[in-house]
């Protein structure tokens, strides 16, 4: 297993993040995959996902002032998708710092987009816990400063979660609720069984994927298939 990142490694990362942590343990936790330890980054990832979405929404509200809500949602979906977050994580140098269990490391986990995207969200969550929303939002803005954000992004194909959200919002319904129902497999080859519930229809559909995100997309796709039969 990879040893904990040294204090020098963490100090260098804090310089790149432009956020000096009052509690460096939060940053170390953000870099810890579930295959490495029972104390891992998934709760921070959950928090960081929400912080990221809010910060990106504020950024788009300012930059794309003429774009309607639906198009803004599609642009945001393209900015916070796994591929984009993976690229940002690589640029930050996270592949060399993420702590993985032996099996996950051997199978190439340090290069796996889902692990690196999740780690970046966890880092954002750690900054939020350490300093509040303003430093976390400032970090998100720095991460995206070189990304060419244009209205054309709204024309890129929608992923199932975005399409489902827009379908429900267009009918004044609540957003879907996603839950991880079960996980299976070894730590480095897990599959996630995810449930997507739409309260107004008292209906839940499930999907399976190699990451929580992939499971959510599969569940959203199943829910859309059901809704389109009504």
Task: Throw out a few tags for this protein.
230 residues, mainly alpha, Ribonuclease iii, N-terminal Endonuclease Domain, Chain A, Double Stranded RNA Binding Domain, three-stranded antiparallel sheet, 3 strands
Structure characterization notes:
By secondary structure, this protein is mainly α. It has two domains: 1-155, Ribonuclease III domain (Ribonuclease iii, N-terminal Endonuclease Domain, Chain A); 158-230, Double Stranded RNA Binding Domain (2-Layer Sandwich), CATH 3.30.160. It is built from ten helices and three strands, in the order H-H-H-H-H-H-H-H-H-E-E-E-H. It has helices at 7-17, 24-30, 42-63, 69-79, 82-92, 102-106, 113-131, 133-143, 160-169, 212-227; strands spanning 177-184, 191-198, 203-209. The protein has a three-stranded antiparallel β-sheet.
Write a brief caption for the model.
This protein has 230 residues and is mostly helical. The chain is built from ten helices and three strands, in the order αααααααααβββα.
Topology overview:
Layout (H helix, E strand, L loop, with lengths): L6 H11 L6 H7 L11 H22 L5 H11 L2 H11 L9 H5 L6 H19 L1 H11 L16 H10 L7 E8 L6 E8 L4 E7 L2 H16 L3
Antiparallel strand pairs: 1-2, 2-3
Helix pairs in contact: 2-7, 3-4, 3-7, 3-8, 5-7, 7-8, 9-10
